[in-house]
Amino acid sequence: MTCHAIHRGGRRHGRVRLFATTFLTSVLASGVAPVLAEDIPEVVITAPRLSIPADARLDAAGDTAKLLSRTPGLNLISNGGVSSLPDIHGLGDDRLKILVDGMETTSACSNHMNPPLSYIDSSRVEKVEVWSGITPVSAGGDNIGGVISVKSAPPVFAGPGEGYAVGGRLSAFYKSVNDGVGASVALHGANGTFSLGYDGSWAMGRDYYAGGDHRAVLSTLYEARNHALTFGARHEGHLLVLEAGQHDIPYQGFSNQRMDMTGNRGVHGNGRYEGEFAWGKLEARGYWQQVKHAMDQIGGEKNGKMPMRTDAIDLGYAVKGDIRVSDGKTIRVGQELHRFLLDDWWPPVAGSMSMAPNTFKSINGGSRDVISAFAEWEEKWAPQWTTLLGVRSDTVLMDTGNVAGYVTTGTEAANAAAFNAKNHAKTDFNFDLTALVRFEPNAISTNEFGYARKSRSPNLYERYSWSTTSMDSSMINWFGDANGYVGDPGLRPEVAHTVSTSFALHDSGRKEWAAKVTPYFTYIADYIGVDWVSNSTTRSSVFPLLKFANHDAMMSGVDVSGSTFLARETGYGDFKVSGMIGWLHGEMVNTGKAMYHVMPINGKAALEHGWGGWTNAVEAQLVGTKAGVDPLRREPKTPGYALLNLRSGYEWENFLLNLGIDNVFDKRYYHPLGGVDYSEWRRHSLTGQVGALPAPGRSFNAGVTVKF
Fold first, then answer.
1. CATH at 294
2. Phi first, then psi: what are they for 600, rounded to 5°?
C-alpha cells in the first residue's frame, strides 16, 4: 500500500525541504508508512505527515491538483487551467476516489471540467493523503486506482490562558507564462472553545505560451473564485466543525476539448464530528453540494455555438469508529452513503438546423447511489510484524429517466426511442478486500507485501449516453482526444486485482539516506475501455465514434527512489540530493495494444540547499518517448524531453517570499497525458491527424505570504 500524506509545515521544516521533502519523502513512502524517521508515527499503517513546501504551493497556485505532482507514481492529465485530473499508475479521473474535506463529489459534466479538486483553492489545503495500490478499505471504495484526501486547515483555537486569538494570512502570486495572478486571504477569531474563520481566493490566467515559438495555446485561459466560512467548537476531546462555501468559475478554456466552460457555480455545506472515548475514536460527517454548470465555446477558434447545461447535487454521510482492542490491535468499522443526482440538457439554438427546435435531454433525472459498509483489522503481532486485513461492501444503485433529441425524426430520434424502451435501473453488488503484511527484520530494512481486490461501477455517462450522431456523441468526452463516445447500460463494474511489494533500505535513524524499490502488478477484469463503432463523426476518420465496452486489461510497473544528504550543518548550510524513476506498462488483454494515457518512463532529480531562512533547489525532470499509444482513440505519440526548474525562497518571521523558474531553457515539449490540440486544429480547419497539445514554456514565478 502506498500512503502519502502532506502537511503544511512551519518554519522548522523550511531548511532543506524546499520541495523534495514532499516529493521525495513521499516517494520513499511508497508503502504503508514513511521512511524518514521524524515523520513516522508509532502506528505503522497510517498516513505519514509531511510538510507542503512553499514552492509546491506556488506551483499549485490556481490548480490544486498540482500539489500532488511530486507524489511517486502520480501524474496529472491536462484538463483546463484549474481542473487537472490526477492519475495514479495509469488509472485516473473516476477510477480514483477524491475527497475534499471528507466530501465525496462527482464531476457534474460530460467533459469532466469540474473535478473534485477544482472546488478547493491550494491556499486552503493543510493536508493531503494519497493511497495507491494496496489501499485500506477504510480509506474509501468505488475506485480501482487509489484514494486522494485533501483537507483544509482545522479551526484555530486560543491556547490555555490566551483568552482570544485573532490572526490570518495574506498571499499573492504571479506566473509569467500566462500572466497568471491570484490572491488569497484567511482570517480567524477564536477563544478556547469556539472558532470562526473565513477563507477567500481569486485566480486568473490568460492563454499560456508554449515553449520555443512562444505562441499562445488557445483555450487555456481561466478565472476562479472561492469563499468558505468555518465554525468550530471543542470540549474535552470532542470537536464539531461546520462549513459553508461558495465556488465560482466564470470561464475556463479547454484546448483538448470541443467545449469550454462558460460558468460553474457551486454551494456546499459540510459538517463533521470527532470524539475521543475510552474505547477509541468516533468520526461522523454529513455534506451537501449543489452545482450549476454551463458549457459552450469561449473564443472563435472552435467555430461554433452549442450551449449545454448541468444541474447536479452530491449529498451523503459517513460514520467511522476506531476501536482500540489492545495496545497493538485496532478494529475499524464504518458505514457510508453517497448520492449523486444529475440533469444534463442542451438548450436549442435559434436558427440552427440541427440544434433546434427542442431541448436535447442528455441525462434526465439521473441518479447514482452508493451504500457502503466496511470492517478493518490492524495488528502489530511483534516488533517486526504488522498486518492489515479489511473487507468492504459497496452497493451501487443507478437509474435515469427518458431522453429526447433536438428533433423528432432521423437517427437522433431513433436513438432516443431505443434508449427509452430499455430498463434503465441497474444495481451492482461490489466488494473490496485488502490484505497487507509489513516486515522490519532490523533497523535498516522495511519490507511490505500486499494484495487488494477493488471494484468500481460505471459513471452515469458511461452507462447512459445514448446518441450516436456525430455532433451529439462528440460532446461526451473527458479524455482530451475530441472523439465521439456513446454509453452502454449493460456495462459491468470494473474489478482490479493488485499485488504489490516494496523493499526499502535506510539508515537506522531514517534521517540521512534511504532507497526503495516498489514493483506492482494489476489485472483489471471488465475494464471499461472502448469498441470502435464507425468513422461517421466530423471530418471523416479523424474522430471515430467509440462505444464504452468491457475488456480485460493488465498493468505492471515499478517505482525506484532514493535520497541522501551530501553535507549537513556546514558553514554554507545543508545539501541533499534526491531522485526517483517511474516505469509503467499497460495493455488491453484482448488486443495486446497499449491502454490510453499510460505515462512513459520518467524521472526527477533534485539538488537542495538550505541555509538559515534560505532554501534553494535545482530540479531536473526527464520523460521518455511515448511510443505506445491507443490506436482506437488516435492517441498522439510524443517525443521525450528534459526540463530544468529552479527554486529559491526566503522566510523571515511572518514573511515568506518564493521565486522560481519553470522550464528554464524554454523547451518545446508535449506532455504524454496532454491530449490533442483541438483548438489549434479547428481554428485552421485542418483535416489530418490532430497533433499533441504543447505544454507551457518558460515561466518566471513569484509568490509572497504574510502571516499575522
1. 2.40.170.20
2. -70, 175
